[in-house]
From TrEMBL:
SUPFAM superfamilies xref list: PilZ domain-like
An example molecular function term from Gene Ontology annotations: cyclic-di-GMP binding
InterPro entries linked: PilZ_domain
Residues making up the signal peptide according to the UniProt record: none
Name of protein: Type IV pilus assembly PilZ domain protein
Amino acid sequence: MSASTPSPGPAQNRNGDRFHARNTANLTAELLVLHEDDVIRHPCQMADISVGGCAVRVSLDRPEEITVAVLRMQDTSGEVDIEVAGRLCWNQQTSVGSNTFGFQFRRLMDPNLIDHMVSAGLVTRRQETRIQLGTPIQVRRAHGKPVLSQATLEDFSTTGVRIHADKELDVAERLLLTTSSGASGSVSVKWIKPCGDQFECGCIFQNLNSARAINDALAS
């Protein structure tokens, strides 16, 4: 596969979408830099990617001298083999001897290539790993709102949860979740959509204590 400029269409609206590297053990990357007459290979680790650029973690001696480079990405199955030219546009030190660099592509990448990487499990929209669960949970709403008689916590992460409820909730509504073990945490509703005869709801934790309480209870 090679990077190319996508044809005009709905996919162009995804230029700003950023996908986080999900399994870096299966996705290898390297920066190819021309130095005098030699091509120097710098192994790097993908952090995230969009059709317009990406962020990579790499150790470089003189990054300010690198104006143009080629980024090559491959997966262990051999289905993904992408080379794209671009330039370093920012850097942030993340550890001793290693920085995270912003790499801007010279041409927009075909969104279908990123779709393929998502399907292969190499990148994901979610920054935090979600743990699938599917367990009953108690949900308390503010006084005066209809009481939920049934709610299921479908998955959770360090930043939020996804639940199914028997009644429609409100975006921005605050809820108090209580697990079967008695642990409680407050969340705020970010989105909701119908799901059969129930409603699917995505929520984020209101504070760190809530996130810890719910995650510790559900992960044990």
